[in-house]
Structure formats: C-alpha cells, structure tokens
Amino acid sequence: MARALLGCRLVRRVAGLPDRTVVVVETEAYLGVADRAAHTWNGRRTPRVAPMWGPPGHAYVYRIYGIHDCLNVVTGEEGVPEAVLLRAAVPLAWWEGREVSRPELLSASGPGRLCRLLSIGRELSGAGLSGPDLELLRPTPGEARPVLSGPRVGVDYAGEASAWPLRFAVAGCPAVTRRSSLRSVP
Fold it and tell me: What pLDDT, on the 0 to 100 scale, is given for residue 45?
C-alpha cells in the first residue's frame, strides 16, 4: 500500500482558508504487531495508537521529539494495525510540471514539514481521509513515475525490521529525504 500512495493528492481544508493540495512523493509502511518499528508492535494498544486499530482510510497522527507531528494513513483492516507514514510531498504545481520556487518545492520535505505546511496536528488523529478536513485522492491514471525503495528512516532500535525495504519514493524528486539509501524498483 505504501507504494500505491505515491502520486496521491492530499487536500487539507480549513474553514476560512483556501484548500491546500500536495502530492505524496515519499512513504514508509509499518506492519503492525509483527513490526518492531510500528507503534502497535507486539499488540500495543494505547489511546494514542487507537486509530491504527480502526478501519482503513483514517489518519493516525503522532508527535515525535516533542515537536513534530507526523501523518499516517491507516491501511490495515479494522483490528489489523497497519499504517503508512507520509514522509514527503510536493506542491501540485510542481507535480503538474509548473515552476515553483525551491523553498516552496521543499516545504513538505519530511513528515514534520508536511504536517506543519498543512496545519495537521494530533487533533486530526482518527479523522477520515475522505473529508471534510483531509481528503486523500488517488493518482490520475497515466501519472506513474519511476519508484525507489529502501529501508525506513530513524528506526534503528527495531533490529532487523529497520532494514526492511518499506520506504518508497518518486525517483528524481528533490523533496525526497535521505535519497542515498534508496534503489530503483522494477
């Protein structure tokens, strides 16, 4: 599912402000109770991770280092706590081939920046991704681009699970983080 989210549009709606749309260019999968890197490893259930146990198509938002919020898409069926972290996105204009400034291009490069740009906080954890506040739209047919894959970032504590190739990214995109560990996917 992590690879399938590449190219999806994420729309953020806030009352009184124009909608903001970005395109997902980097993701990381977390495979629930069997994945030492997942917040639900070994069956962990806390109020914070409750959205991961719920139905797919909802947001799971958590905070890292006490300052950065991170947005995940819950992908497992209800009772199967799997999710995909949205690691980076680009402005829709860049994705469509229009010119944007470098600061704008990199404004959602990294999960914390993505959430900051779109004003996504923990209050949206559990929100549906079909609106009204957040909407995740499938890529338009014909938009497929070359894909890279590699190990996840920042999960060295997870033993062998830290090396699993569960991070996916759009090749050639400057907003993708830590590109050196990524390789082409057929």
Answer: 79
Rounded to whole angstroms, the Cα distance separating 88 from 86 reads 6
User: What one-letter code names the amino acid at 115?
Assistant: C
CATH number at residue 94: 3.10.300.10
The overall pTM is greater than 0.85: yes
Side-chain half-sphere CA neighbours of 95 within 13 A:
22
Question: H or E element: which one contains 94?
Answer: helix 92-95
Q: How far is CA 53 from CA 72, 100, 151, 163, in A?
A: 13, 39, 24, 24
Bridge partners (DSSP) listed for residue 170: 147
Q: Which range of residues forms the domain containing residue 139?
A: 3-184
